[in-house]
Amino acid sequence: MRRRYRIVYFGPVLLLLALVMSMPVVSAQQYFLKSMTPQETPGIIWERRFGGPQWDYCFDLIEVSTGGYALTGYADSPWAGQEGKIWIVRIDSEGGQLWNQTYRYVGDPEQSMGYSLLECTDGGFAIAGYLGVYDSGTNSHRVETLLVRTDSDGNQLWNKTYGQGLFEDMVQCPDGGFALFGFTERVGVIGNDDFYLARTDSEGNLLWNYTYGGTEADLSSRHGLVLCSDGGFAMIGGSFSFGPEIGSKTEILLVRTDSSGNLQWYQTYGGPGYNHGSLLLETNTGFIIAGTSHAVGPWIIHTDAEGTVTSDHEYISYALWHRTSAFGSAVSMVRCSNGGYAIAGSGGGLYPDQGGGWLLRIDDSGHYLWDQLYFRSERDGLLAIVESSEGGFVLAGTTARDWEANDVDVWLMRVADQPTVPAYRLAAGVLGVGFAIILGVFVIRRRERWPGL
Hints:
By secondary structure, this protein is mainly β. Helices cover about 10% and strands about 50% of the residues. Among the domains are: about 1-20 and about 425-453; about 30-50 and about 285-420.
C-alpha cells in the first residue's frame, strides 16, 4: 500500500517542485536575488553613452516637462585630481543628445561637481553641488556649497555659494525658492561634519540655514532630502555619532524639521558595523528608507510619521555569480505609478561603480518582485532612476570605456517595467511540469487498467 501511495502522489510533488524552482528564493525578511547575464537580459528599449577621454560622471537624472530627460554630474576629470566641471546634458525621449553645457569657475585647480538637478517652474534648471576654491593667502584648498541656475537651454543665469561644504540634494519649495541639503565641516573641528540644510528664495538669496549632528561626523546622502506634506523637511544619511561603536562605525540617521528648519526629532537605525541611509521618500503613513546594512547590502525600512520602524527587509544580491563579490547597493529610488518602488544601484562590490548596474523592484510592503543586472564593462553602476512617462524606467550611471586609462563614460538606458524569469528557472519549470503531466497520465492509465492499484 505504501508503494501505491508514492506512485499516485509523485506527479503532484514534482509539479510543486517545478513551481518552487521557478520562484525566487525567499526567507522571512531576507530576499536572496539572482539576476541574469547580459545575454539573457530582456527589456532594454534603448541604450546610450556620453563622454570624452577622461572621467565623465552622472549623479542625477530628471524627466523634463517638454519631453526627454536631463542629467548632471561632471565632465572630463582625471579622477584623482577631480578637476572636472559641472556638466548638464539634455537628451530627447530616445536618448539622443540635444545639447550639453559645462560651467567653469575660478579655482586652483578648477573643480566643480553637480550632484542634484531639478527643473524649475519657469522651464530652466537648478544644479546643486560644490565648487573647489583656492585661498592664496593660506595656500590652501577648500570646497564650498554651490547652487547654479540656468535657463531652459542650459545658459547660466547666476550662481551662489553658501559656505564650506557641499550640497548633495535639493527641492524647490512652493514659493519658488530652494531647500538644499548636504554637509558642512563643524566649526573648529577638522574632519567632523554635520548635516547642513539651507533655504533660499527664488534668486538664491539665503533665508536661513541650520546644521544637525552629534559629536562625530554626520554625512548626507545624494537622494536624502524630502519636502514633507506639512511643509517641513526630512533628511537621511550616515552618522558616526550614534550606535554601539561611536566614532568608528556608522548608523543610519533620519532628521525631521519644521518648515523653518527647526529640529523636531531624529531617529537612528542600525547595529554593529557600517550602516548608511542613501534614499528617502515620504509615504502616506511615514517614510521609506533605502540604505545599506552592516550584514548584507540593500536594506529597506518602513517607518511611521515619527520615524519608528514598522517593517524592514534586507536584500542579498547574488547577481554576480561569475565574479568574486556579491554585495549590492541601493543608490536611487522612485515610487512607481502602478505601485511599489524601483531601486537602482550596483549588483556587487562595495562602491556604486562596481559589479554591474542593478535594478530591484519591490511592492509597497517591501517584498521582492523582480530584479535585473546590467553590465557592459568591468566597472559599471547605476546612480539615478526615473519612471518614464512613456513606460518603464530610464536609468543613468557609469560604464568604463577603458578603466586602466581612467576613461569612464555616462551610461544611460531605458528599460521595461516587467518581471522576468531567468532562463534556467523557466527551463526547469517547463521540464518539471512536463514530466509531472506525463507521469500523471501514466499513473491514471495504470489505474484504468488495474483499478485496484
